[in-house]
Amino acid sequence: MRLAIGIKTGRWPAIGSLLPELAAAPVVRFGARTMRYLWPDPAAAVLFPRHEGARPLLGEGGSVLPATDAD
To answer: What's the Cα-to-Cα distance from 20 to each of 14, 16, 47, rounded to whole Å?
Structure first.
């Protein structure tokens, strides 16, 4: 199932460098939040990092992370 991702204003520069189509996405305001939604191509994987202090931890729950971009 294709899902949209919501990107808040503080992340636009970082995500926009990876997904240039973000600049053309409409701005949506929801309460105090301002964001843009994207419907990217289907992803092979979705990672949800867990943060311990300032350090994100990936793969701690037994996930197998790709070793290369091709994976």
So the answer is: 10, 5, 21
Tens digits of per-residue pLDDT, 15-67?
888 889 999 999 999 888 899 998 877 766 666 666 666 665 555 555 555 66
Burial class (CB in 10 A: 0-12, 13-18, 19+), 16: middle
Residues 6+ apart with CB under 8 A from 8: 33, 34, 35
Ramachandran area for residue 12 (φ above 0: left; ψ -120 to 50: alpha; else beta):
alpha
Task: Give the predicted TM-score (pTM) of the model.
Answer: 0.54
Q: How far apart are CA 31 and CA 22, in angstroms?
A: 21
